[in-house]
Design goal:
Pfam families: NDK
Order of helices and strands: EHHEHHEHHEH
Bound molecules: guanosine-5'-triphosphate, magnesium ion
CATH architecture: 2-Layer Sandwich
Structural class: alpha+beta
Largest sheet: 4 strands, antiparallel
CATH class: Alpha Beta
Main location: cytoplasm
Catalytic activity: a 2'-deoxyribonucleoside 5'-diphosphate + ATP = a 2'-deoxyribonucleoside 5'-triphosphate + ADP; a ribonucleoside 5'-diphosphate + ATP = a ribonucleoside 5'-triphosphate + ADP
Number of domains: 1
Cofactor: Mg(2+)
Helix content: 40-55%
Active site: 115 (pros-phosphohistidine intermediate)
Length: 135
């Protein structure tokens, strides 16, 4: 089995979609290994989104992710990384399939409700960043 780092972003928390996201994770057959409601400090946000440094939307993205509470989760199961990316849908919510979280609940590329790690390397790095004490 495999672990992935999931975030319900400030738009998802603000719109009351935490239960909806967790419900979809559970219905898919994945399980929760860690869960915490928190506000994101600037340095954590910078490390989390380091790959996007220098892009036009980087500052705006950091502002957005630090603008309110997020729910951070470690999600576990067979092929959890790919499975959650499928639940989330494409980055641009207007291109995401109906039935995916982004496809069903968003229209704006930045404000796309959830984050999910995109590879085993990203998952390991992000889980260590968000849950350093998790065994
Ligand atoms: P994450 O799971 O959040 O990492 O999304 P992703 O892997 O589907 O997309 P990516 O890592 O390429 O981008 C990270 C986040 O930056 C996206 O989820 C969006 O919130 C935001 N983002 C991506 N592209 C754009 C863009 O063109 N404009 C803006 N404003 N935000 C963007
Ligand atoms: Mg990404």
């Amino acid at each position: 089995s495999e672990r992935t780092l999931v975030l319900v972003k400030p738009d998802g928390v603000g719109r009351g979609l935490v239960g909806e996201v967790i419900s979809r994770i559970e219905r898919k057959g994945l399980t929760l290994a860690a869960l915490e409601l928190r506000t994101v400090k600037r340095d954590i946000a910078e490390q989390h989104y380091a790959e996007h440094q220098g892009k036009g939307f980087y500052e705006s993205l950091l502002e957005f992710i630090t603008s309110g509470q997020v729910v951070a989760l470690v999600v576990e199961g067979e092929r959890a990384i790919e499975a959650f990316r499928q639940l989330a849908g494409a980055t641009d919510p207007v291109k995401a399939n109906n039935g995916s979280i982004r496809g069903d609940f968003a229209t704006v590329v930045q404000n796309n409700i959830v984050h999910g790690s995109d590879s085993p390397e990203s998952a390991a790095r992000e889980i260590k960043l968000w849950f350093p004490d998790l065994g």
